[in-house]
Write a structure and sequence with these properties.
8 helices, 3-stranded parallel sheet, alpha/beta, 15% strand, single chain
């Protein structure tokens, strides 16, 4: 039966969500209700067709290029940030905002100003939330040297920002082999010396197979001594420190181990 509602289940990634947008557009043009989900609905509605959408680089690229060229960088950035957020409804939100901005031959480059609309308002909030976490990790990532002269860092971000960290750390360490491991999502951002970084999914770091930092105690002790030496004990303010450096970021930071 051809039901009036489509739920497109896609991979929880930028590529997956914008592939869902590409495929969902044709169903919306046919008058169907469209939702994009990153997980199979536990209790789907009656009269709903559930479709699995494999991630497709070409389809996602077409959508992203359309957003950038027709709606501008600000909208492109906001939708990308929303798409990597931990919000379970992010796929549908991104789709609805794009439909409002582009359907019927429209090209509303000021769509983000329509904060009275609940979908636009939510996308704007997700953008801010992801932006703040991303910029915090620019300063909170701690690298350790592991065997083979590779710089290694482990993080556990709330949002899926791993790929977005690539440009910043490539600029900082262009001539180093480094890797940043998202332990929650089991994927790693790899940067071979002098090359562009790339994502490897389903990565499991085996710390018993030569991945533990070499000379760990020596380097970490030096860093801890440095942090202690620059601290003015009389001006310590743990409450204020926690405002700028929440506890959730500290588990992978050397100076708090």
């Amino acid at each position: 039966m051809d039901f009036d509602k489509r739920i497109l289940v896609c991979e929880d990634s930028l590529e997956g969500i914008f592939t869902g947008v590409y495929d969902g557009w044709k169903w919306k043009l046919r008058g169907k209700q469209v939702e994009i989900s990153v997980r199979e609905p536990e209790y789907p509605d009656f009269f709903t067709t559930i479709m699995t959408v494999p991630a497709d680089t070409e389809k996602a690229g077409k959508v992203l290029r359309t957003i950038s060229s027709r709606l501008g960088h600000a909208v492109y950035e906001a939708l990308c940030y929303a798409a990597v957020s931990c919000c379970p409804d992010k796929g549908t939100l991104v789709f609805r905002v794009l439909w409002m901005a582009l359907s019927g031959r429209k090209c509303d480059r000021r769509i983000l100003e329509n904060l009275a609309d609940p979908d636009v308002n939510m996308v704007a909030k997700l953008r801010i939330k992801v932006w703040h976490e991303l910029h915090r990790f620019y300063g909170f990532v701690r690298f350790r040297e592991i065997s083979g002269s590779v710089l290694f860092s482990e993080i556990a971000p709330e949002n899926d920002i791993l790929e977005m960290l690539g440009t910043h750390f490539t600029d900082r360490f262009p001539n180093e082999n480094w890797m940043i491991y998202d332990s929650g999502r089991k994927k790693v951002l790899l940067h071979p010396r002098g090359q562009a970084p790339y994502i490897q999914k389903n990565a499991v770091i085996d710390r018993n197979a030569g991945n533990e930092p070499v000379q760990k105690e020596e380097y970490e002790e030096l860093w801890k001594r440095f942090c202690y030496s620059v601290t003015i004990q009389e001006r310590k303010n743990p409450h204020l420190q926690q405002q700028f450096l929440p506890l959730k970021f500290r588990s992978n930071m050397t100076e708090f181990e």
